[in-house]
Amino acid sequence: MKNIVIGIDVGISTTKIVGIDENGLVVNPFRIKATDPITSLYGAFGKYLYDNKIQLSDVRQVMVTGVGSAYIETPIYGLPTAKSEEFIADGLGARHESKLDRMIVVSMGTGTSLVKCDGDEIRHIGGTGIGGGTLAGLSRIMLKTDDIKQLSSMAMQGDINNINLHIGDISAKPLPGLPMNATASLFSNAKANATREDIALGLIYMVLQTIGSSCFLSSLGSGIRDFVMIGNLTLLPQCKDVYPAMEKLYNVHFRIPKYSEFCTAIGAALDFYLKNR
User: Fold this and answer.
1) Where are the transmembrane segments (predicted)?
2) Do 166 and 248 belong to one domain?
3) Which of 37, 179, 190, 277 falls between 20 and 30 A from 69, CA-CA?
4) CA neighbours within 13 Å on the CB side: how many for 55?
5) Whole-structure pTM over 0.85, yes or no?
6) Is the distance from CB of 87 to CB of 202 less than 8 angstroms?
């Protein structure tokens, strides 16, 4: 596999890596966890090359992005190494995977960033401090675990009616634009005897719905109706319940592409091709 460009998204606790060939083909992305970004990056890089039988001489360029890329000041294994601005990488990766030219990219990581893509214009337009870090922190306090997989599994057995207040709880009929099952207030209906499973589901819904509402508000006046969701939180199975309901409520589209968790790494690699076309 010759002339491959390696894109690496170095996060706070997770590094994601992917190879992109000259035809834009995504080659076996994967992620690895570590306690520090340098260990995570070099561990991911070495394993990726080994698993995919890629020689150092096959690598045309390494592109790094993400908050952990600030720690990378020297070429990785002596290979040509450069940095891609994270928000540009978000936009390029989401555009490649969604095949859309006009959208808002919603990067659901520790917090959430919003990037507007309109043709070749890619611009960071804001974000929210609500994200995976919020979910882990609140779960640590309330449920004594910050294992997101465990939290998601618990939530599968929860009942959101024991946590959230819905329009149907406060009104005898739907309000204009608000069906009876729309959320009126997060956690406002929490029962004293709510189970751990109920609380887990409530926390996940709170984070996902807050992000979804932020997306819609960020698009007002732009005419954009497509939101491409990327990052680790897209792997939560509850996304399949939350976002279709919000699509109906707001008349928009929330899209989660195949390689949603790797879009930033994909975009970093594509950034090289963009700059050298």
Assistant:
1) none
2) yes
3) 277
4) 4
5) yes
6) no
